[in-house]
Predict the 3D structure of the following.
Amino acid sequence: MTNDRGFLPKARREELDERLRQRLDRWYANAYEDDNLFLTLARRPGVLDATWGFIRYIYGGGSLIEPELFELVRKKLAYNNRCLHCSAVTSRAALAEERTEGEGAALLAKLFDYERSDLPDRTKAALAFADRLSGEHTGFDEVEYRRLREHFSDDEILDLGMTIGFAIGWQRFNTAMEILPDSWRDGSALPWQPLLDAGAGAAAVAENPVSCPQHSS
């Protein structure tokens, strides 16, 4: 399940100690079966431990933000950051039920035109916050804060904002280091290509010019 793409070497599954093997099994069960990111981080177990702790906070019940909402935010950030890895994988722990391919495509379309969609206002406010923090201009004003406070407490904003910041760094690192999922094939359509073809999200592309070497061919 591991590919040799990317700049950084990966740990070998057969060389993991018992603790890391058990953790990888939980990764497969609760996150997804692609292990390229896990095995990259596993070369530095302390880094993996720190990352794992924050993931558990987000998806394991520690955060005040429900995992289903953050999963939508993470997908939107993956588009903004042009992260193929996070665009292609979905956390099992975040979804109450599996979506069909058609349902997933319909949801994606809502994410990229969310202000005019039928998504809940709370979700729209979270997505707007994610867009603001992942853009070139991260300044925040009173109007934006008041919109957030209509739907989130200050503690929830803290959880949401720090989680968004974590995801932005994670995704930009994945993109820079070309950590790609096994499902990716060179020449394949980008996960967000239908939206670009329809003209949706063009402003986000212009405002978030993140380098993505593996997409340039």
